[in-house]
Amino acid sequence: MLGLTHAFSSQPAFLNWNFILLAFSGTAQAASAISEVDLVFPLNETYAPSRLFPIVFAFQSFNPATVVEPTINTVVTNYHNPNISYSNIWFLGFHMFNRSEPYFFTRPFDQFGTEGTWIISWELDWRNCNMTENPSPDYFINRNVSRGHKTIFTTHKDSSKQVDLFADINNEQACSRSSGATLNIIDTRKVPDQFKSSMHWGGDTCGVASLLSNRADPCRVKMNETVASKIQASMVADDCEQAKIKATEPAVSCPPQETGAAVQRHGIWGGVFFGLVITAVLSRF
Fold first, then answer.
1. Which of 66, 124, 140, 189 has its CA 20 to 30 A from that of 52?
2. Could you state, in order of their start, the residue ranges of all structural domains in the chain?
3. Mean pLDDT of the chain
């Protein structure tokens, strides 16, 4: 786990969870032996402060049948005032994954509405399934961690650069500076019965995976304008709801309440949260 040595705000910095599941039109992609997760937004840039400012992870060829119980641990720290620091653990249960990958996992962070230089440190945890030296078909499960991933960016009132997920995530010059982790899926094994009862498992198979260094390719991640708009709309809706609950001013003008909208709220058990799921269609690039 990341070392959490700084003081934490008594107010939750993060708003509700947001999952953007991107289903490809046409035939689903075949499973790849390489699974990858990238922090694709924000970039290493200077942005205008905004309360509607998301952290976005992208998952490529991430199959829950092979990458078991993945968890993202994040720490957001103010570079000039390390006493301002926020930590979070994102439990990505088996039921969170869309079989037709890739997809984006987002969460707005309202503290980015203030000026500062910010460090997003993150690590990817997952469970591995390996064979023991015993010739019998027994397995042991161990926890693995990919550490040392970091993105640094600034929010400043004089910057004209606004949050633009479509432009930034598709920026071929800047995307190479995004941080990522890749796993090589060597094999897939059947989960022993004694492990299936675990409330965290959720599947019958698990992968034998090894970490690959310097293999992440975040520039392969593409986002279309429809998906970017849906993320923006979900942040606005969430901010308006939070403002109503807390009797505070929203960051932007709130749209009228819609009935039968495409954005639906679902209760999702992930260990610590309820979430917002938005389903979208992403054409092939």
1. 124
2. 17-282
3. 72
